[in-house]
Write a structure and sequence with these properties.
single chain, alpha/beta, 2 domains, 6-stranded mixed beta sheet, 6 strands, DUF2285 domain-containing protein, RovC-like_DNA-bd, plasmid
């Protein structure tokens, strides 16, 4: 039932707004919306897996057509001042990002997509969303095998927890207890190595950096393994 309700909400979510030059997204999502129901559309320059496409008008005679109406339960679209449609297909957990440079998905009519690939480095990054889109179009599901494990997610979630804790007034020791447990803090907090305190200080410093704008690197930066420890 929850998925059905989310699908109903998303089916009508077409935003008409100018892209903000300072934020990381094409529009500001309602902060009260639960994360699986939120539809965040990162700007293409911050999301290397954004696939630019041309949506040429088509009809039922075209075997290569894509019908936006069939995608409506998973589709959210924001249109900027230049009439570019920024679209995301998402079930709340996985996503496929498209920028429609010409034509329209919001119109709801069948389209023939032309995928804009060029170069070597950028083309390779966009092969993932292309594979995901083709699989989703055939099966109407997001294939987990096409979404490699991203170790940065665990790090980003921890940094977000640390940020919330510091805003709430938690001390570094409180944060250590929440992250590593009371037993670890009791044994290591006052040890001569200062290792545990240093870990917490790094998390707090990274939380401040993220809050100051470094969150824009979340989709492009591969955080080193030591940052996750």
């Amino acid at each position: 039932m929850r998925r059905a309700r989310c699908a109903t909400e998303r089916s009508a979510r077409h935003r008409h707004t100018a892209t903000s030059p300072t934020g990381g997204c094409t529009f500001a999502e309602n902060p009260a919306r639960a994360a699986p129901e939120a539809c965040i559309i990162w700007r293409a320059e911050l999301d290397p897996e954004t696939m630019p496409v041309i949506a040429e008008a088509s009809d039922d005679r075209d075997p290569e057509r894509l019908d936006p109406a069939m995608l409506a339960p998973w589709l959210t679209i924001a249109r900027d001042a230049m009439a570019v449609e920024h679209a995301v297909l998402s079930d709340g957990w996985q996503r496929i990002r498209l920028d429609v440079t010409h034509g329209s998905l919001a119109a709801g009519h069948p389209v023939h997509l032309h995928y804009l690939l060029n170069g070597t480095v950028s083309a390779e990054a966009r092969l993932w969303p292309l594979r995901r889109l083709l699989h989703f179009h055939r099966h109407r599901v997001f294939d987990p095998a096409l979404y490699p494990h991203n170790r940065s997610i665990a790090y980003a979630l921890t940094v977000l927890r640390v940020h919330d804790a510091t805003v709430a007034g938690a001390s570094h020791r409180d944060i250590a207890r929440a992250l590593f447990g009371n037993n670890v803090v009791a044994c290591d907090w006052n040890s001569s190595s200062d290792f545990l305190r240093s870990r917490v200080r790094r998390f707090v410093a990274n939380a401040r950096r993220m809050n100051s704008g470094a969150f824009k690197t979340l989709l492009t930066k591969d955080y080193p393994a030591e940052a996750l420890r």
